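Dear colleague,

Following up on Tuesday's group meeting, I ran the structure prediction for the two-component complex that the binding team flagged. I've pasted the input sequences exactly as they went in, so you can double-check that nothing got truncated or mislabelled along the way. The structure tokens for the whole assembly follow below. Feel free to forward this to whoever is handling the docking comparison.

Inputs:
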Amino acid sequence: MINVSKIKEGIVIDHIKAGQGYKIFQQLGLDKINDVVVLMRNVPSEKMGVKDLIKIETPLEINFDILGLIDPDVSVNYIKDGKLFKKVKLTLPKSVVGILKCPNPRCITNTEKIANVRFDLVDKKNKLYACEYCEARTKL
Amino acid sequence: MLKDRNLIAPTDFSVDEIEELMQLADRIVEDPDRFNEAARHKVMATLFYEPSTRTQFSFQTAMNRLGGSVIGFSDPSTSSTAKGETVADTARTVSQFVDIIVVRHPKEGTAYHIANNTDCPVINAGDGGHQHPTQTMTDLLTIRHYKKRFDHLKIGVCGDLMFGRTIHSLVNTMSRYEGVEFVFISPKELRMPEYIKETCRDRNVPFTETEDLESSIPGLDILYMSRVQRERFINEEEYLRLKDFFILTRDKLDKAKDDMIVMHPLPRVNEISTDVDEDPRAVYFNQVKFGMYVRMALIMKLLGLDEGLAK
């Protein structure tokens, strides 16, 4: 097993469903960070069997909406002086702004340049969100 | 209070607000001439990005009968859209000239987009296959006129239930009233979409689905007809087999209640045979007139012009 040392200051995104780690990595734009970022895939987990894990060695402002959209079951651990000082449990956001794109080609948001389109959660089970303009449903 | 509001989707108005609108519409139906100065000096813009002669005429005559004036276009190639202007910019500009905007556009969500970019009230006159709320208000005023109520009605809706936005809006709106029951009559290929049925279930509104128009008619208070379109079928034989099930003829009305009403958003093609037109239960042409009256009421309400009117 590969060993990755504990971080002194930063964020650990834990309990990511195996296979979702890369998606979170991309959506949070972690490839643009100059500090140390580690994406671990298929890490053995007692609770989950296998899981993905991301360690970010810098205090970063996380977009919880994006994270909640991809996987509301992940936990975000904030580390300071090598110790856990804050743990954030995520939920599926009720609405998100500027993250999703309307899949409906007949929607005006795909013709005019409309920034910050809001999508509201309409189907919790299937994580479906409706476009505020045309009500077409989509997910991340 | 409906003053300064927009009407983008039929459910933008609560049951109480619809009642408020209908009460004014009732007064207009009773004596339209009384309101012929109500919108004097007010200007309405009709921005029609696709042709819809009937809807545009209805809005224009509504404003004219209120004593107001109308500007607008029915062909975007004659507006600055042809120069590449966005819909939002056109609306922002036009809103500097007028008191109220009516918009029809093939793209879904356009009326909402315009409402977000202007200060004056905006009425959606159809945004693609999405919403057409004034058709719903027209249907409601027609139902109110003939049935005197919105609750405890058994409503049959027949035809293309899958793509018929008018029908979706009507079911969505009417399912908010107590004791309403639906019969969805359509070929199985054109059945009511699941999300509309979901709304009925959520509101505990009973409904049945059938392919048989004739046997559904007895017991209905309202029969709402719509067109079954040939182009929706992949199989021509299937279309030919089913199309006659959905043609309302005079003899099919024999078993209907005496006070049942037959409605249709028009234009009709062949789904109601012309011999039904003479039946007193056929109200679809009167429906057009109620459309004008309800638009008069709507314009007055959104502009706050009924305030101070003697009851």
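Strands of chain B lie at 43-48, 69-73, 100-105, 122-127, 154-158, 181-185, 207-210, 222-225, 261-263.

Cheers,
M.
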